[in-house]
Amino acid sequence: MKEIPGPAPVDISELVRAQDRLSFVYLERCVIHREGNAITAMDERGTMHIPAATLGALLLGPGTNVSHQAMVLLAESGATAVWIGERGVRYYAHGRGLAQSSRLLEAQAAAVTNQSTRLRVARDMYGMRFPDEDVSTSTMQQLRGREGARVRALYREHSERTGVSWSKRDYDVKDFAGGSAINQALSAATTCLYGISHAVIVALGCSPGLGFVHNGHARSFVFDIADLYKAEIAIPVAFDVAAADPEDIPGETRRAVRDAVQDGRILARCSRDIRRLLLPDADDDGQDWNVVHLWDGGSRNVTGGTSYDVDVPW
User: Where is the chain membrane-spanning (predicted)?
Assistant: First the structure.
């Protein structure tokens, strides 16, 4: 038989567990190819090699040109590619998720369809905003009220800090330029956070539409996760940009969010937070390589890839 050209696929035993991988590598303005079992990124400064087996997700920014063989290697290595805006801002499309296991997705679906576990996850999300308070018995109505008061206080705090006048959140999705400078900046910053959160969610193999606090939208879970970092990233950045009164408010806001996300390591934190919310009792990252089971009824599974040629009473 004629040999198949090119490097042999990466052996599963050679793959690094997801918890020990580089969570994300961001590339822009370069040509991406493969050399053996490494991803290569080449620009005018030279060529960088990235071991594919240690990579979680490759974030492809503006000006990237990726080869078919590079994409094949990412798929074989259990990594994913996500096409995004500059330095992580904006989500456009994605390839295979990092997770070959459906464990996180199944945990998300199970939690969101059960009232008690959905409430537990929602409380945990609010608890991340109130780390010094006990929210374990709070209702959703109470949590929404406390969150609303917290956000209003943040708006007042940053208004006083920057000298930017603030009255209320007021914007028209059909007339972005018609809003005040601070409302334009807030809209641009929030949109950036949505793109970043979306990129992490799909890289982990979760569903963007299965939200816990938000509901009924194809990006409900994206809104849930982005809200965890809005007070830390979007609000202060928006007030800083509005105070500087730049000519290009959305552009300056996107660049400021980009830098704040990188400085705060939001991508890696977002990945950890999603796993902790969906699998709070897990002692690993939930990534099992190349595991396929067959459902056996109830909560039972049997090994896949096996011929069950036995007489079963009907």
Answer: none
Strand bridging mode 31-35 / 65-66: parallel
Q: Give the residue from 90, 26, 37 showing the smallest Cα distance to 64.
A: 26
126 burial type by CB count under 10 A (0-12 exposed, 13-18 middle, 19+ buried): buried
Pick out the residues of the known binding site for Mn(2+): 147, 214, 227
Side-chain-facing half-sphere of 221: CA atoms under 13 Å = 25
pLDDT band at 48 (very low <50, low <70, confident <90, very high): very high
d(CA 170, CA 78): 43
Residues of each annotated binding site: 147, 214, 227
Report the predicted TM-score, pTM, of the whole model to 2 decimal places. Answer: 0.76
Look at residue 80 and tell me whether its pLDDT is greater than 70: yes
Domain of residue 20 covers: 1-84+290-313
Tell me the pLDDT tens digit for each residue of 91-144: 788 776 656 678 899 999 999 999 999 999 999 999 999 988 899 899 999 999
- Whether 91 is in a domain gets the answer no
Cα dihedral sign for 150, 241, 183, 185?
Answer: negative
What whole-number distance in Å separates Cα of residue 102 and Cα of residue 205? Answer: 7
Residue 117 belongs to domain with CATH number: 1.20.120.920
Residue 79: give its domain's CATH number: 3.100.10.20
State phi, psi for 146 to the nearest 5 degrees: -65, -40
Q: State whether 80 and 161 are in the same domain.
A: no
49 and 119 housed in the same domain: no
